[in-house]
Design brief:
Elements: H1 2-12, H2 25-39, H3 43-46, E1 51-52, E2 58-61, E3 74-80, H4 82-88, E4 94-103, E5 120-129, E6 136-144, E7 149-158, H5 165-171, E8 176-186, H6 188-197, H7 200-213, H8 221-232, E9 239-252, H9 253-264, H10 269-279, E10 283-291
Antiparallel strand pairs: 1-2, 2-3, 3-4, 4-5, 5-6, 6-7, 7-8, 8-9, 9-10
Keywords: Signal
Signal peptide: 1-19
Length: 293
């Protein structure tokens, strides 16, 4: 349940910077039901009646819901443009959501040592879209893993109409990602768990090769060295990775799909180089890696 909610709310759903919405019970209920219907969730989720906090947030916790270890203990959110999003099967104009009490082993299936059993995480998502310019942004997607570390992600793009399902299907070819940032403050236990979920040594080997063949106009030698050091420390990295990706023209769907497919089918170093060149054409990558030891 938890992984699917995060994917739907965090990766695509568009807090309004200029407004702080105050939610009411009906909007909370209808928005929650629409989300669960889209995800095909079990009846125990579809029948939840969210409460409204004194400061105008929708809230779900164990007092109103049959939440289990694989779910979360608390969720609060507020949004704008909810009615229109429900009617058109689209996304709100803005969304802010705060999860707490996410069990890393039960909810995310992380392979953590026994002494980390019961480790909890929190997640904050803030995102928005502009219906006029078709720009969108994930202002923050921040994971707090407690003593294990933290991860912060942001993204800015445009070119796709997220107001309705049909409009998305028509305009998805115009999607452009102009900027993305990632900051990971990690410890060996968290690094091992994340590496296992990313495909293990085979995937790491491919990533090392991609970094090695990246064109000089994509990544500086300092950033390349930082990425190499980060990957060489796998699977037990202990430090902070700062990564930013920018594209003045915008990274488009055809470029992403074509480069990604070519990379998956690569069988030689030359194939990897060609795929990386296609995928990251016009892209600039900056990276730093600061180990703790």
């Amino acid at each position: 349940m938890m992984r699917r909610v995060v994917m739907i709310m965090g990766l695509v759903l568009p807090v309004a910077v200029q407004a702080q919405p105050v939610m009411d019970r009906e909007t909370c209920r209808e928005g929650w039901q629409a989300l669960n219907a889209a995800m095909g969730q079990a009846a125990r989720f579809q029948t939840i009646e969210p409460m409204v906090t004194d400061d105008g947030w929708c809230r779900i916790d164990r007092s109103v819901a049959d939440l289990r270890d694989k779910d979360f203990s608390e969720l609060e959110w507020r949004a704008t443009g909810v009615a229109e999003a429900i009617e058109e099967s689209g996304f709100p104009e803005s969304l802010e959501a705060r999860f707490s009490g996410i069990d890393l082993i039960e909810a995310f299936g992380m392979d953590l040592p026994q002494e980390r059993a019961g480790a909890m995480a929190g997640l904050t998502v803030m995102a928005e879209r502009d219906p006029e310019t078709l720009d969108f942004a994930i202002r923050a997607m921040d994971f707090d893993f407690g003593a294990l570390g933290a991860a912060n992600f942001s993204l800015v793009g445009g070119g796709i109409d997220l107001s309705g399902l049909k409009r998305m299907q028509i305009t998805i070819g115009g999607l452009r990602i102009r900027e993305a940032t990632l900051s990971v403050d990690t410890t060996p236990d968290l690094s091992r768990a994340l590496s296992a979920g990313l495909g293990g040594e085979e995937q790491l080997a491919l990533m090392r090769e991609v970094v090695r063949v990246l064109p000089d106009d994509t990544v500086s030698e300092e950033s390349r060295a930082a990425l190499v050091a980060f990957l060489d420390a796998a699977p037990a990295q202990d430090g902070t990775l700062e990564l930013s990706v920018t594209s003045e023209a915008g990274l488009g769907m055809i470029q992403i799909a074509g480069g990604g497919m070519q990379l998956e089918e690569s069988v030689s170093d030359e194939d990897v180089k060609d795929a990386a060149t296609l995928l990251l054409s016009g892209v600039r990558i900056e990276a730093t890696w600061t180990p703790y030891n």
